[in-house]
Amino acid sequence: MKKILYISLSLVIAAIGFISCSKDQTYAEQKDKERSAVEAFLTRDVTIVGPAGDTVCNVGVINVITEQEFYDQDSTTNLERNEYVLFSSSGIYMQIVRPGVGEKIAKGETRQVACRFIEFNILGDSLQLRNDVSYWHTNPDIIAVTNTSGTFSASFVTGSQAGAMYQTYGEEKVLDGWLAPFPYIRIGRQMSEDGEIAKVRLIVPHTAGQSSAATNVYPCFYEILYQECRD
């Protein structure tokens, strides 16, 4: 419980800092600042480190491709070129590290999916939240995902099974950024050594982010593993 409170307090302090720094800025100026932060992030060759100085994720210099290029490549991103597709309507950037095992969520279907993730505040240049550590091992963030005629929606499982995202931000609705990969990935469980579950990397603007990002106008980088929940 202390760790949950610590994370939440850290977010509150960060939010206060953002508000303090941006109280004299217009929304347009805040968006320009966010856009500049994302553009810099794409070319910075970022390595995300943990509190102990350990390497959590090497992002690298990102090569942005268009949606048409993405679809021409059978909805894949070239990892050797460190490609991310930019979805122009949402401003979300996505890299499919692994498309996963199992089947895609079919139209009219609802499935429970366990998510392991890291959340990096791009504007604050800091690792903000993660549930890929031992503390959260028994409580991954579980989301109930529904495919309605090709449009995906989802909600976090709450109560005693609630994970880091819900406990930190208190939002039952899953942020739009986390839903962007579902048309392109398969959801299953790892049953063999080479049958690895879906893994994606995302750059999510505040308009598709969680409540703190939306309120304080900052983008986040996510690395997420998606796995089918056991029956």
Characterize the structure shown.
It is a single chain. The strands form two sheets. Strands 3, 4, 5, 6, 7, 8, 9, 10 and 11 form a nine-stranded mixed β-sheet that branches. The chain has a two-stranded antiparallel ribbon with strand order 1-2. The radius of gyration is 17 Å and the shape is globular. The two termini are 28 Å apart. The protein has one domain (2-228): Chitinase A, domain 3, CATH 3.10.50. The protein is an alpha+beta fold and 231 residues long. It has helices spanning 2-22, 27-43, 67-72, 164-169, 176-179, 211-216, and strands at 46-49, 55-60, 63-65, 83-87, 92-98, 110-121, 126-130, 141-148, 151-156, 198-204, 220-228.
In short:
With 231 residues, the chain is α+β, with helices and mostly antiparallel strands. It has six helices and eleven strands.
What key attributes describe this structure?
disordered N terminus, Chitinase A, domain 3, alpha+beta, 6 helices, 231 residues, nine-stranded mixed β-sheet, globular, two-stranded antiparallel ribbon
- Domains, number: 1
Q: For this structure, what is the CATH class?
A: Alpha Beta
In CATH, the topology is named: Chitinase A, domain 3
Q: How much of the polypeptide forms β-strand, as a percent range?
A: 25-35%
> Helicity range of the residues?
25-40%
Q: H/E series, N to C? A: HHEEEHEEEEEEHHEHE
Shape: globular
Major sheet size, sense and barrel closure: 9 strands, mixed
Based on the coordinates given, report the CATH architecture: Roll
Structural class per helix/strand content?
A: alpha+beta
